[in-house]
């Protein structure tokens, strides 16, 4: 697996696919710069070699050219994080881009305008990829968040760099961390899968059953399993059409020797609201008109025991509606257990939008081994798929 450490960038122009699709407020201020910070080590190494950097990214889902999706809005934040004034090209291809690249000196950084202002980007257009490729000497992919898309800048462009292409440090770390869970994991391996729907996690569950010893199922998914097993779930969220599937997963897990852990008690509420009345009840005996919104204390004790005995932990999805303080305890305690296991030497990988949001909100970022930057890409890798953006570099 070639990374930027296998190249010397002296006098070279590196064209890097980064994922600077960051959230902006109504005044176009960056509200979370994690993705820009994550690309800094790759950029720093290239500049230290004496190379220059051309950054390309998308922002949002524009329909054609829309000023509110211009990457110029992130220039100030990018310049602060990268420690120098980042130059900007108001186009990502064509004369303006070529001129800006031509004027770029060693040690300088240029950000191209939003790739998705062109429909050709998402269409994986070869000519568009060729125009992007013309701008750089070496192609670096450091955007895990888009590695599952066969877009022009993530996959097609690599064809024009048969030998001069590699992974950035962030993307290499993502692959390495996921492989620690999927291929080279230390036992016991525990996967914590939360969130609301079994349907969105089914392929992940099927793929990782061969790789884990324990699977903790939490969040709204819990109730599809509980109902399938004959429990009363009140008004709790449930995918009725997935009950057979839930039973099949339990059967498969038993066959493969995987222990499935489902909450035994829950914090139930009489309304989906932070100010609702609450009670802790047996997960199989939720009263009519009530819904389970967080894992209960007995469940958390069970989960704690499993996690503290684990050597490899994958966390994807919260245990409750953590956005409401009343129902955040389960997710916070889970974070504490994983942090403790990590401090004791376990490898812990957190990924998937809601888990990452929870980890940031409750201050666990530095207490786990790795926080993945790509929700969809991570799920597809966990499903056992080869991501096109990764395959293009390995090819």
Distance between the termini: 10 Å
> Rounded to an integer, what's the Rg over CA atoms?
23 Å
Strand content: 15-25%
Main sheet specs: 6 strands, parallel
Estimate the global geometry from the Cα principal axes.
elongated
Number of strands: 17
* Mean pLDDT across residues: 95
How many H/I helices? 14
- What is the SS-derived class? alpha/beta
Helix share bin: 25-40%
**Regions with little confidence, pLDDT below 50 for 5+ residues:** none
**Order of the strands making up the biggest sheet:** 3-4-2-1-5-6
Features:
single chain; alpha/beta; 17 strands; 14 helices; about 400 residues; six-stranded parallel β-sheet; about 15% strand
Task: Characterise this structure.
The protein is α/β, with parallel strands linked by helices. The chain is built from 14 helices and 17 strands. The strands form 4 sheets. A 6-stranded parallel β-sheet has the order 3-4-2-1-5-6, sandwiched between helices. Helix 1 crosses helix 2 (about 75-80) and helix 10 (about 295-310) runs parallel beside helix 11 (about 330-345). It is elongated, with a radius of gyration of 23 Å. The chain starts with 12 loop residues before the first strand and ends with a helix.
Furnish the topology, listing elements before pairings:
Layout: E1 13-17, H1 34-49, E2 52-56, H2 75-82, E3 87-89, H3 94-102, E4 109-112, H4 119-123, H5 126-133, E5 138-141, E6 165-167, H6 169-182, E7 189-193, H7 202-208, E8 214-217, H8 221-228, E9 232-233, H9 243-256, E10 259-261, E11 265-269, E12 278-282, E13 285-286, E14 291-295, H10 297-308, E15 312-316, H11 329-343, E16 347-350, H12 353-361, E17 370-371, H13 375-382, H14 388-394
Parallel strand pairs: 1-2, 1-5, 2-4, 3-4, 5-6, 7-8, 7-15, 8-10, 9-13, 15-16, 16-17
Antiparallel strand pairs: 11-12, 11-14
């Amino acid at each position: 697996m070639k990374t930027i450490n296998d190249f010397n960038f002296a006098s070279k122009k590196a064209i890097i696919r980064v994922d600077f699709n960051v959230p902006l407020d109504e005044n176009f201020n960056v509200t979370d710069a994690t993705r820009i910070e994550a690309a800094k080590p790759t950029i720093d190494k290239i500049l230290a070699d004496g190379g220059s950097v051309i950054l390309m990214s998308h922002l949002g889902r524009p329909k054609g050219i829309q000023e509110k999706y211009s990457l110029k809005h992130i220039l100030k934040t990018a310049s602060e994080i990268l420690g120098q004034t980042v130059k900007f090209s108001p186009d990502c291809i064509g004369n303006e881009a070529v001129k800006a690249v031509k004027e770029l000196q060693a040690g300088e950084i240029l950000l191209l305008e939003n790739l998705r202002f062109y429909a050709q980007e998402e269409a994986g257009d070869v000519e568009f990829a060729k125009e992007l490729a013309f701008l750089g000497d070496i192609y670096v992919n450091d955007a895990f968040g888009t590695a599952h898309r066969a877009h022009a800048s993530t996959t097609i462009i690599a064809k024009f760099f048969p030998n001069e292409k590699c992974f950035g440090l962030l993307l290499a770390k993502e692959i390495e961390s996921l492989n620690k869970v999927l291929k080279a994991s230390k036992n016991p391996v525990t996967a914590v899968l939360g969130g609301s729907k079994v349907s969105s996690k089914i392929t992940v569950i099927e793929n990782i059953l061969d790789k884990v010893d324990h699977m903790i199922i939490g969040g709204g998914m819990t109730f599809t399993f509980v109902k399938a097993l004959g429990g009363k779930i009140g008004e709790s969220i449930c995918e009725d059409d997935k009950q057979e599937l839930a039973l099949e997963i339990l059967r498969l897990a038993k066959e493969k020797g995987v222990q499935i852990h489902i909450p035994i008690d829950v914090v139930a509420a009489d309304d989906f609201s932070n100010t609702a009345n609450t009670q802790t009840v047996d997960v199989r005996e939720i009263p009519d008109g009530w819904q389970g919104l967080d894992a209960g204390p007995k469940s958390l004790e069970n989960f704690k025991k499993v996690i503290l005995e684990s050597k490899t932990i994958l966390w994807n999805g919260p245990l409750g509606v953590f956005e409401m303080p009343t129902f955040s305890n389960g997710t916070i305690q889970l974070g504490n257990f994983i942090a403790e296991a990590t401090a004791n030497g376990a490898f812990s990988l957190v990924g998937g939008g809601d888990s990452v949001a929870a980890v940031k909100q409750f201050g666990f970022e530095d207490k786990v081994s790795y926080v993945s930057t790509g929700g969809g890409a991570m799920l597809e890798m966990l499903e056992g798929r080869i991501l096109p953006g990764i395959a293009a570099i390995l090819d």
